[in-house]
Amino acid sequence: MNETHRIPSKGAVVSTETSRHTPAVTELGQRYQLPAGSQERFDKDGFVRLPGVLSPETIAAYEPEITDKVIERNTMHLPLPERSTYDKAFLQVENLWEHSATVREFVFAPRLARIAAELLGVEAVALYHDQALYKEAGGGITPWHADEFYWPFATDRCCTVWVPLQETPAEMGPLAFSVGSQAFTFGRDLGISDQSESELQRELSAQGFPVYDEPYRLGDVSYHLGWTFHRAEPNRTEIPRRVMTVIYVDADMELVEATNDNQRSDYATWLPGLAPGDKPSGPRNPELYRRTG
Predict the structure, then answer these.
(1) Confidence (pTM)
(2) Contacts made by residues 215-218, CB under 8 angstroms, sequence distance 24+
(3) Which of 9, 52, 91, 131 is the most exposed place for a label (fewest CB within 10 A)?
(4) Per-10-residue mean pLDDT for the chain, 293 residues long?
(5) Is there a contact between 66 and 132 (Cβ–Cβ < 8 Å)?
(6) Across the chain, how many H-helices and E-strands are there?
């Protein structure tokens, strides 16, 4: 990685053997009690912010390994001024769970998966994939977009948990949501780009959708639906904005025909061996939570 843009690791790697018996692992296996009205807000607004889902100690136990894997597996080495708008937005490193048993514990956490199932109102959720999204110091905007543009899913019963690995003040570029935009169909054919930023900024504003862009305290997370439009401001600090995400899909949903090249690529990458009409149950899509009784 170019030293100018290298992401510093904050501490030593947590070994797999020790991490299996820590309080952090215990917390990841425990249920988080959703605050009253959370599911209703999620349905109405297309997202929900949840306080104190993870303790600072749990984040401290996993952040070093996640960061080290981002550094190890990052393939973007161009200086920021030479990158596209998409590549200026963040370093994107996917499926870290396949490369670290410690990260696997985090990605497979029943605590996070159960929240997803409860918010979506489904019996079970499967993993689509994970993504580390690290906005470097000086990194640019994340343009307006909706994630499900990239996914070949039959319904909107899919969501992403966005987990900041540090306090995330306004100047660091916290995730911002267009409140209630999950039912807005304009722009669903736009990937992340300068075009999506300008056209969606204009149309979402014209429709009067409020923007929610509050800072994240350490331990706060958000969940958003696949069709909820969101963006982020640049990182104006000297510290990388370190975020880990996990994408969950209704484990009983059917896949559909790909409608763009991104979805065709997703079939090959994240849904190997699966086809339209199948459920997301391939080797890369383990079921992470199912209600029992």
Answers:
(1) 0.92
(2) 215/167, 215/168, 215/169, 215/170, 215/172, 215/174, 216/49, 216/164, 216/167, 216/168, 216/174, 216/175, 217/51, 217/167, 218/56, 218/59, 218/164, 218/166, 218/167
(3) 52
(4) 35 38 90 98 98 97 98 96 96 98 98 98 98 98 98 98 98 98 98 98 98 98 98 98 98 98 97 97 97 76
(5) yes
(6) 9, 11
